[in-house]
Every structure is written in structure tokens, then in C-alpha cells.
Design goal:
By secondary structure, this protein is an alpha/beta fold. It has helices at 15-28, 38-47, 75-78, 83-92, 105-115, 152-170, 191-205, 232-257, 261-269, 271-281, 283-286, 307-323, 325-331, and strands at 2-6, 31-36, 57-61, 98-101, 126-128, 130-131, 139-142, 176-180, 210-215, 227-229, 288-292, 298-301. The protein contains 13 helices and 12 strands.
Length: 346
């Protein structure tokens, strides 16, 4: 697999991206193209004891960088020679199998939609992070912020896309698909949720997805569903709420175990479980968030990604490229597009 990496995106660019690429090339056998300021990339490697470009790595020079304050809608014009835009063009032209960036989420989504483009028939690309769950399997949340205002048809597409993704990337034969809502009853929610519920129920009856009904936010981390369907606004609140709760719990555990000698001894006895908990909640272990619905895989890595996070994002990108989700999405388009004139069709 040949992965294109935006080396200038993120808080620790280009050091973290360059070192993560070195690790991924060595561990997973990936070819990685580092797109960015070549001089800075080579200097970052040199400062970490790597004098020459390792085998499996190459550099595609791009002197400009997308700033977090750039307007996402115009970034492909105003930052045409940036590492993000150059890398996405390379992906579109067949210069790699997948693209990874820790840069601006809005800019990446906008540029990827315009350059890489959506699978024909897909109304909106969606961001699908995997949320850690109690049973260890994880739940794919779709969408977590790409489209704040959705139509029922968007949510139908998200459900089918999420189900396909869970089958191909999570190894689930019949993933449980649920609609994020304020209650489990089918009468709950606003007009969007009620209309979407009807569409997802029909898709479930037709065998397109395994729809299990509504799911409340509290049941997501408990493993109540394999795929959680949501508009981007609600999904982002759910995701950030879980992230904040995890940080709160980690802080409380640290404070609790650090009070005195006895609690420190207890921490030592529980060290294995504590490490497992931290690892399960660590975004670096996942790598990033797949943008689902594009013709080629694009991974949004966390803005504060370090060496480990970039390495895992590259691994994730290679797996997504191998899965070839775009072909499956195209093959199932008849189940995702409502006939014109049908209620809730765009």
C-alpha cells in the first residue's frame, strides 16, 4: 500500500508525521509519501538520528501549509500548493491508495469532497470514528460533525454506509444499526429522527441493514449498537461528551490513587487494569477518523497526533484502502437513494 501523508498538518508537524511514517513503513510494510516542506522533514528526521530517508519513504515537496484559520470553502484556491491540497490531488490522480492529514477538519472535508469527490449518489461524506465500548468491540459513530443539518435521506445513507464499513473494517457479519435519539421508543425525537426512523425501519425490513431501533447516548459506550447513526451536530456532542468523561475519569483516578501510600500501593496492584483502561480510551491507538463516502480513503488524524497516532493512522488508511469501501457503496446505491418525489428525498 502507498499512503500519502500530509506532513505539515497537526500540532507537532513535521516531526510526529515523519517519525510515525518511519514506524509504519517498518512495521506494516507501507510505502509512505510525506507531502510538505522537504527541508524541514529531512531536518526533523536528522534531529532524531535518521540521517538518510529510510526505505519505503519518499518526499513530495509542498511549501505552503493550510492554516487552522483558513476558510475551508476556499482552501483549494487560496492554498493550492499546500501539503494538504497537493496530497489530495496526488490521491485523486492515482499517486497513492489513501491520504492522511491532521490538519483542519473543515478544510480537509471541503478539499477532499471537491478534489477526491464523493461516490456517485452519496449526498454527503460522513466522519465515522469508532467509540470504545464496554465489550471491547467498539461502535462506529456516523456522523460526528461533517454535516450538522441533515435530511432523513442523509441518515439513511449514513446507516447503510456505516453498516458496510462495520462489515468490512470491523469484521462484523450483521452489525447492529441504531439511531441516536432521546429515548428508545419509536415515537421519540424531533421530525428528523421520526422520519429517519421510518426509513431505517423499512431498510431493516428489506434486509439492507440490521436496524435495532433508537439508542440513547448513555447506551453507546455500554455496547448497545455496532453502528450509531446521527446528524453531525448530535453526533459531535456525543463524541465530545464521551471524550470529556474519559478525561474526567482519568483525572479522578489519578487523584484518588495518589492520595497516600496505601492508595499508591493499590494503584500498583491495579496497574494492569489501569493501563488497559488508558489504552482503550487513547485516541492514538485508533489513529484517526475515516471520512466515509469518498471515492478513495481519507483519514482525519487528531490535531495533536504524536508519533504513535500517525503510525496507527497510516495503518488504518492502509486497511481502508484494502477494504475498497467505495466499490461496496456504489454497489448498494439503490438502497440509499430515494426516488424523486418520494417523501424526504432531496
Amino acid at each position: 500500500m502507498r499512503i500519502i501523508l500530509d506532513a505539515m498538518g497537526g500540532d507537532h508537524a513535521p516531526v510526529a508525521a515523519a517519525l510515525g511514517a518511519v514506524d509504519a513503513a517498518r512495521e506494516y510494510g507501507c510505502e509512505v509519501v510525506l507531502v510538505g516542506r522537504g527541508g524541514q522533514i529531512l531536518q526533523a528526521l536528522k534531529e532524531n538520528g535518521i540521517e538518510t530517508l529510510p526505505r519505503g519513504l519518499e518526499i513530495a515537496n509542498a511549501e505552503d501549509v493550510v492554516d487552522m484559520h483558513d476558510d475551508p470553502a476556499t482552501v483549494i484556491k487560496t492554498r493550492a500548493e499546500s501539503s494538504m491540497v497537493v496530497g489530495l490531488r496526488m490521491l485523486h490522480e492515482g499517486g497513492g491508495d489513501a491520504f492522511v492529514s491532521a490538519g483542519s477538519t473543515g478544510a480537509l472535508l471541503s478539499a477532499a469532497t471537491l478534489i477526491v469527490r464523493r461516490v456517485r449518489g452519496i449526498r454527503r461524506a460522513a466522519m465515522g470514528p469508532v467509540i470504545p465500548t464496554k465489550d471491547g468491540g467498539g461502535a462506529l459513530l456516523i456522523d460526528c460533525g461533517a454535516t450538522a443539518d441533515c435530511t432523513p435521506e442523509f441518515l439513511l445513507q449514513f446507516a447503510v454506509m456505516g453498516s458496510i464499513c462495520a462489515k468490512k473494517l470491523m469484521g462484523l457479519d450483521a452489525p447492529r444499526v441504531a439511531l441516536l435519539n432521546i429515548g428508545a421508543e419509536d415515537s421519540k425525537g424531533g421530525e428528523l429522527q421520526k422520519a429517519a426512523y421510518a426509513l431505517l425501519s423499512r431498510a431493516g425490513e428489506q434486509g439492507v441493514i440490521r436496524f435495532t431501533g433508537n439508542i440513547e447516548a448513555r447506551d453507546v459506550p455500554l455496547g448497545g449498537a455496532d453502528v450509531v447513526v446521527s446528524d453531525g451536530f448530535s453526533g459531535n456532542i456525543l463524541l465530545k461528551g464521551i471524550e470529556g468523561t474519559a478525561l474526567f475519569l482519568s483525572s479522578m483516578l489519578k487523584e484518588m490513587f495518589g492520595k497516600n501510600l496505601l492508595t499508591k500501593l493499590a494503584a500498583l496492584l491495579c496497574s494492569g487494569g489501569i493501563r488497559a483502561f488508558k489504552r482503550k480510551m487513547d485516541y492514538r491507538e485508533t489513529g484517526g477518523t475515516l471520512m466515509i463516502g469518498l471515492t478513495r480513503p481519507v483519514i482525519k488524524a487528531h490535531g495533536s497526533s504524536d508519533r504513535l497516532a500517525f503510525c496507527n493512522a497510516i495503518r488504518q488508511a492502509a486497511q481502508a484502502a484494502q477494504a475498497d469501501l467505495a466499490s461496496d457503496l456504489a454497489a448498494n446505491m439503490e438502497h440509499m437513494v430515494l426516488p424523486r418525489g418520494t417523501a424526504h428525498a432531496e
